[in-house]
Amino acid sequence: MAILEVDGLRKEYGDFVAVEGSTFSIGRGEVFGVVGPNGAGKTTTLKMLAGLIEPSGGSATVAGYAPGEPAMQRQLGFLPEESPLYEEMTAVDYLTFFADLYDVPSDVARERIHRTLDRLDLEHRDRRLGNVSKGMKRKVAIARALVNDPDVLIFDEPASGLDPLTTNYIIEFTRELSDEGKTIVFSAHNLFHVESICDRIAVMNDGRIVARGTLEEIRDAHGGTEYHVYATVDASAALDAGRDAVGSRSGPSRSVAVSRENGRVRHVVPEMADVEAIREAVEANGGRVTDIRTETPSLEDIFLEIASDGPDGEAKA
Ligand SMILES: Nc1ncnc2c1ncn2[C@@H]1O[C@H](COP(=O)(O)OP(=O)(O)OP(=O)(O)O)[C@@H](O)[C@H]1O
């Protein structure tokens, strides 16, 4: 069942359209990644979901409530891309202050805050926030998004600009929150992280969602898996001849890309059925197949392809 529904969401700044026609829904317990180049509209989308900016059109609901409604705020934890903290306060005082705003009973708040900070491995809890490292500040900001124990978390770039150790900590922690049943909307530039923890992904470009679905679905819509057949001879001429003689059924369904690599000839085809046709053509040409590999494009490969295509490269809206 969807806990977050977005329908035709739009944001204009004067004449400029920052987000256009965003439509998606997110199931309870899902981790949904929003990716896209700088200026694609990710932060604007997340802020509209969190009720921090007013949409110019379309609608969104979180747990059945419109963004900004007090009942929805109780269900939501938002981690902004930039999260200035009150520098004079300690982490514990700062988090206690926000727990109070959510009317969390003080004994529950104390236990929740320390448990979260333990899980985030946060040291120096009694040091002024103005004197702690960037990674610690980010952890405190994450803990702040959790003080009301929300069902839905919106994390805008949770680990950007942090060292690899802190980054891994935060990504692992996000995964654990998902395992506990939280629904998480997550934007990130590090596509490896998105690929490793997101169930579904929306790729944005120029304010529009240009691809959406599981990584598998997005892969299929953008070329999918390729088969690389390595052989001692180039079979493309034999394949062409076979195709000319008896029609396309004897040859690969699509064109074969041929290149040379370490003295071998690599034939790249899009379908498993094509692999057999290549093997036959190689043998008919006096050669043999030495290796067959499947190559799956990473989210990064797909992202680069989509981002360079622009909105016309739309796979699924
Ligand atoms: N308050 C504003 N007034 C005018 N334009 C804005 C405003 N906020 C954002 N924009 C523009 O809207 C577009 C989308 O911005 P947004 O911050 O949502 O992108 P993003 O995908 O989060 O980018 P990044 O990865 O750089 O954080 C950008 O071109 C940005 O300059």
UniProtKB/TrEMBL annotation:
Pfam family, one: ABC_tran
SMART domains: AAA
Keyword flag RNA-binding: no
Keyword check for ATP-binding: yes
A GO MF term: ATP hydrolysis activity
Domain of life: Archaea
InterPro entries from the UniProt entry: AAA+_ATPase, ABC_transporter-like_ATP-bd, ABC_transporter-like_CS, ABC_transporter_ATP-binding, DrrA1/2-like_C, P-loop_NTPase
Keywords assigned by UniProt, alphabetized: ATP-binding, Nucleotide-binding, Transport
Domain ABC transporter: 4-231
Family from the record: Belongs to the ABC transporter superfamily.
Name by which UniProt lists this protein: ABC transporter ATP-binding protein
